[in-house]
Amino acid sequence: MDLLQYRTLTTLLNPNKANKNILVQIKKDRKKKLAAFQKSAGLKFKDISLLENSFMHRSVSNESGIRVNNERLEFLGDSILGAVCATLLYQLFKEKNEGELAKIKSIIVCEDTLSAIALNLHIDDMLLLGKGEDNSGGRNKKAILADAMEALIGAFFLDSGYKAAFDFVSRCIKPEISKVTGENYHKDYKSILQEYCQRQFQSYPVYNLVKRSGPEHERTFWMEVQIGETVYGTGQGRNKKSAEQEAARVAWEKISANG
């Protein structure tokens, strides 16, 4: 995509005018691509400029000097996603308490899940990235994909209202809810704990090796997970990875029990 086509967007003080400028500047081949995306994703935008805006990463802004990107839509979409997910869980699991519902929700709205949904919708092909970000593999970065997914939800909400957004989000996350609540689901506690720490503390959990024992071919590792200055859990395993996963499980269950 030619970044120069967005040079006319010099102000965000008039959102309608800004959206109109985006629409005017979208090239014919890009419009065809946006139309194909909508058909594939089961969406129909009245204002195609909102859809286009949802794919615009901030690296475009940084390289071109314009002030439009998808971060505000991402902020909005995050709240819509959370509301839809909470509503579905409330309706589907009448026997589960608040803590159990919160645990499921934290997995559904996490970066790993959202980026997987984004890939399934082929959002990676639709992203508008600066050259530097694109060349560094930005289309495959989970954070960028997850953010774009939330931005798409926000854009569709603005374009078509809450019911349409609810139906779209429901279609996307109901299969994920089924996976998470299925008997054979293997929980990635390290990812769950990391998502929680990012949201609550804007930091990452740190894993430290406590000790190891046994001969080379039968080693046992003990790892602890630390959040800030506090150790939340210790786990053991035949390798560091499995010991970290066990430590994360202990930590997450302790955090969940304390609300």
Features:
disordered N terminus, 3 strands, three-stranded antiparallel sheet, Double Stranded RNA Binding Domain, 13 helices, 2 domains, mainly alpha, Ribonuclease iii, N-terminal Endonuclease Domain, Chain A
- Tell me the structural class: mainly alpha
Q: β content, as a range?
A: 5-15%
- Quick one: CATH class of the largest domain? Mainly Alpha
**Measured distance between first and last alpha carbons:** 46 Å
Q: Would you tell me the overall average pLDDT?
A: 85
* Spatial extent as radius of gyration: 21 Å
By CATH, the topology of the largest domain is: Ribonuclease iii, N-terminal Endonuclease Domain, Chain A
Order of helices and strands: HHHHHHHHHHHHEEEH
Provide the spatial order of strands within the biggest beta sheet.
1-2-3
Annotated CATH homologous superfamily of the largest domain? Ribonuclease III domain
User: Which regions contain 5 or more consecutive residues with pLDDT less than 50?
Assistant: 1-24
Largest sheet: 3 strands, antiparallel
Short description:
The protein has helices at residues 15-25, 28-41, 48-54, 58-64, 71-92, 98-108, 111-120, 123-126, 131-135, 142-160, 162-181, 189-201, 240-257, and strands at residues 206-213, 220-227, 230-237.
